[in-house]
Amino acid sequence: MLEVVDRKKAIHVDAKHLPSKTVALSSLGYFVASLAIVVGSIFALDRWIIPALENSGQLESYLWTDENHRLNHFTYLKNDARQSDPVWRSQYMPVSPEHPGKKRIMVIGDSFVWGDGADNVNTLWWRQLEMELEKRGYSDVEVIAAGLNGASTDDEFGWLHTLLPKYKPDLVVFGYVTNDPAQKDANGQAYVNMLPKELPDNDPVFAKLKTILPNLTGQLLQIRNLALQANVSKKSSALEYANWELALLEGENFKSYRKTLERLSSFLKAAQVPAFVMALPAGFQNKTQENTVQSRDFFKNVRDYNSIRYAKVKPVFAAVGLPFIDSSDDFAKAAAADPLLKKSSSALRLGINPGNGHPGPFSTHFYAVSAIDTIEKLFPAALGEKSGQSRVQKIAINDCMPPYMNVQVDSNKPDTFNFTYPPDVTEHTLYMPLRRKHVQLSLKRPVSVRQIEIQGTDLAAAQIYLSFYDDGLDYAPGLFETLPLKKGKALSWEVSTVRKVSAIKLRAGFNGANQALQLRFIEK
Questions:
Q1: 465 falls within a domain
Q2: How many domains, the chain?
Q3: Structural domain span for residue 37
Q4: Could you tell me if residue 228 is inside a domain?
Q5: CATH code of 318's domain
Q6: Is 461 buried (19+), middle (13-18) or exposed (0-12) by CB count in 10 A?
Q7: If phi over 0 gives left and psi between -120 and 50 gives alpha, with beta otherwise, what is residue 137?
Q8: What Å distances lie between residue 42 and 36, 47, 217, 338, 435, CA to CA?
Q9: How far, rounded to the nearest angstrom, does the alpha carbon of residue 497 sit from its chain's CA centroid?
Q10: Alpha helical stretches, state H, 321-407
Q11: Which segment of 127-136, 300-309, 324-333 scores lowest on mean pLDDT?
């Protein structure tokens, strides 16, 4: 037998060492390159990635948190609703106690009525209700609304003693939100205490980091806030928001709420004013643990969140004789079928903006349609007869941000509006979602426009962004499309689409102190 052995020849090579100076410089170069990559990635995350995720609704936005404060400040300035008279009314939307020749529906509620986080009053569900009534031919029905942030059913009951005799509605619609059962004892103290959604945080490290990486720091602060809430809740009797809502449906608070509903029902019957309760399912409120849950089944999560809270109160409303309309199943199905919401896997998309869980355009339109279906079925007398044909409506601006631009229709040109652009500081303008200072004007009803003109004595340049009513969705989703930046004193933009304009954002620059502008819509 032959044995074959394959042996590799060993080759010996003397090792050659690079000079120590060369090694040191190479190491330093690799370190600097690595550090540059890390720093670049961090800045890319802060400047582009986080903003993109915020704008698409995937993250709560730090900048939108600031914008919410600005929006709510503007809403407080323009909306004359106060405890003495919580009816929503403004310079651009006055409300008179008299309503001759018209039916009147009063929607009553809390921040969903007041407009927390909204840049356009027409997005609110009671405005959607009136617009939907007009589309169905009920042109002689006026919708007014009464609501303040944080109002409970008990607060709303108190308002009715003056609102009913003053405004004389033909129907009252209560917008039920899951925090409405909050009650107070005989001493004015809440039965159940809630933790603040935002806790003070004066960490100097975050304060310095915020000046360099504002978006990334904002996200870190929100995570830190949730951790702080969890820690505080262990040492306090106050509850995080979602648990607070559930606690309202137990013990002494819920016993007190039953009595409030009994008194409310008796009062309405004595006043002979028909009423019903419209449940308003919504996305998870901002800055709670619930809205950090990401799932492809987030519509089901939203449904379950609301249904659990409705289950306890529905029998009580039935017992006192107030119809309670629970549309949470239909809401979840409609949301899952909505083309815009399908693109997102976050319940934040249901909110009015990426940093606010109050209802956005899809939700408010859904509430309005559900409410009208109920009114047509149960309270047709409150609607009267249909006009048979839609009336021709003049183009009108009924809202603007900031509210002190003093928008006035030109006395000689009904399609032209005069106003003053505010000073060029963030406190007097909007900022999001353009991330540039701008103003917004909203149309009372969407209008087909073929051309938009802007002119001013000292106008140097302007750019506009248009929001359109979507015929397929049957509502205006509040998305803005950019038109070109133009320079000059008299500017014009062609609107090439056949869609109806619902709102316009404008940013303008001036060569002098005169910031008076004239805006004209040329209809198709």
A1: yes
A2: 3
A3: 21-55
A4: no
A5: 3.40.50.1110
A6: middle
A7: left
A8: 10, 9, 11, 35, 20
A9: 26
A10: 328-337, 339-342, 361-378
A11: 300-309
Same domain, 369 and 411: no
pLDDT band at 287 (very low <50, low <70, confident <90, very high): very low
Can you tell me the distance from the alpha carbon of 85 to that of 92, in angstroms, rounded to the nearest whole number?
Answer: 18
How far apart are alpha carbons 245 and 178 in whole angstroms?
A: 7
**Final residue of a structural domain among 382, 409, 425:** 382
CATH number at residue 466: 2.60.120.260
Q: Return phi, psi of residue 15, to 5°.
A: -65, 140
CA quadruple 146, 152, 153, 157: dihedral sign = negative
83 and 155 Cβ atoms separated by less than 8 Å:
no
Burial 471-497 (b: 16+ CB within 10 A, else e): eeeebbbbebeebeeeeeeebebebee
Query: What does residue 504 show for φ and ψ, rounded to 5 degrees?
Result: -135, 130
How far is Cα 430 from Cα 68, in angstroms, rounded to an integer? 10
| 157 shares its domain with 46 | no
Residues 365 and 478 in one domain: no
Buried b (16+ CB within 10 A) or exposed e, 402-426: bbebebeeeeeeebbbbbebbeeee
Is the CB of residue 502 less than 8 Å from the CB of residue 468? yes
Check whether the bond before 361 is cis (ω within 30° of 0).
Answer: no
Q: Are residues 272 and 374 in the same domain?
A: yes
Question: Is residue 473 within 8 Å of 343, Cβ to Cβ?
Answer: no
How deeply is 376 buried, as exposed, middle or buried, from its count of CB atoms within 10 A (0-12, 13-18, 19+)? middle
Same domain, 357 and 414: no
**Token reading at 117:** 């986080």
Domain membership flag for residue 79 = yes
3-class DSSP string for 77-95: HHCCCECCECECCCCCCCC
Under 8 Å CB-to-CB from 189, ≥6 apart: which residues?
Answer: none
Cβ-based neighbours of 282, under 8 Å, separated by 6 or more: 112, 177, 302, 306, 350, 351, 357, 358, 359, 363
Residue with tokens 């303040």: 148
Residues 10 and 345: their CA atoms lie apart, in Å, by 62
Q: What integer is the mean pLDDT of 428-444?
A: 94
Q: Distance (Å, rounded) from C-alpha 151 to C-alpha 377? A: 29
Domain assignment present for residue 99? The answer is no
Residue 497 shares a structural domain with residue 366: no
74 or 40, greater pLDDT: 74
Q: From 321, 354, 382, give the residue that closes a domain.
A: 382
* 71, 144 contact by CB (below 8 A): no
Does one domain contain both 44 and 74?
no
Q: Give 102-160 pLDDT, tens digit per residue.
A: 999 999 999 999 999 999 999 999 999 999 999 999 999 999 999 999 999 999 999 99
Same domain, 339 and 404: no
Residue 451, classed as helix, strand or coil, is strand
